[in-house]
């Protein structure tokens, strides 16, 4: 797990962006599950931020997800500023015509190219999964150092159309939770999401590791909730979440989030050994 570090020095002018060009595939509404979580359980963060700056880091070949993010968070905080950051210059140039008040695009990487400012939120979805496992910790640290006090870095992964998604909430002091969000009908067992775990966890889904034990517990409670399946998958998911909490798992939030096919658990329950 990344350790706390002192605030980073100002990035030298013309320094090379930190990171590598990724595949950049994206689709409309692909990140809606995470966006509604940010505007829901984490909405107070933006509502109270002194500088409501949100960074969409590595938005990809199309700026669609950054545009959608701005639309959603601006309903929560009208004066929010969303900056889409991409390491590939051509992607930034293609996005420029979509700029508008509160939404802009610039070249950069994990160093977060906003001199003199500290973002309230940084989102990097389907970015770190394309890096080696040995690299993610250093990039987490780089971003954490640049967050505003109480800020949030969201490192997530989802399938091509956003039906299966997971994300880790990382605060300046380190990771605090793992969220899983699934569309009903897009899975047979909750552990079907395993291939979409964030880089910090995907290689630890093996016997003896906490995240593997967690996914197995989800599957077990899902199976034991089959009795309510005739009332629909939503009721079955709610039953599963209640069973998980009763079994002692540090399940966060409540039925209002669970009914969306979402479950969030404290990081200590799934962190790698």
From TrEMBL:
Residues 1-29 are annotated as: Disordered. InterPro entries: SAM-dependent_MTases_sf. It comes from the Bacteria. This is Class I SAM-dependent methyltransferase. The lineage of its organism: Bacteria, Bacillati, Actinomycetota, Actinomycetes, Micrococcales.
